[in-house]
Amino acid sequence: MTERVHGHRVAAVPSSQHVRVEIDGRVVAETRRPVLVYETGMKVRYYLPPEDVDLTLFEPTDSHTTCPFKGVASYWTYVGDGERSKAHTDVVWAYQDPIPNVEQIKGHLSFYDTVALVAVEGEAPADPAV
After folding, report:
1. Among 6, 90, 108, 121, which residue is least crowded by beta carbons within 10 Å?
2. pTM, 2 dp
3. Where does the DUF427 domain start and stop, copy by copy (predicted)?
């Protein structure tokens, strides 16, 4: 579904692309069931089902942010094997209760590609606004 609010557009689109996420050379997630989020002024973001993320490598934090187009995001820190010196704070986020027009991302996790290597194979579904 696509929604425009004051010229801003956001759309969540299910995909069958192969998405593999690595942090510090370790695979932390892999899926063929991502949900792509197209949003005005942003590059496409990949949201992965929690079942396809190794959540044993992450700890929830107290961090939260609010997006008027998606809702309130919760964050996790990558702790790997527990070495605090290698931790990456708030590297992954999810919307546990997103606003209705992007309900497909509920509970799905997305990674900051400044820390995580997000490799994508396959044809992306079309941006519904194009």
Report:
1. 6
2. 0.90
3. 19-113
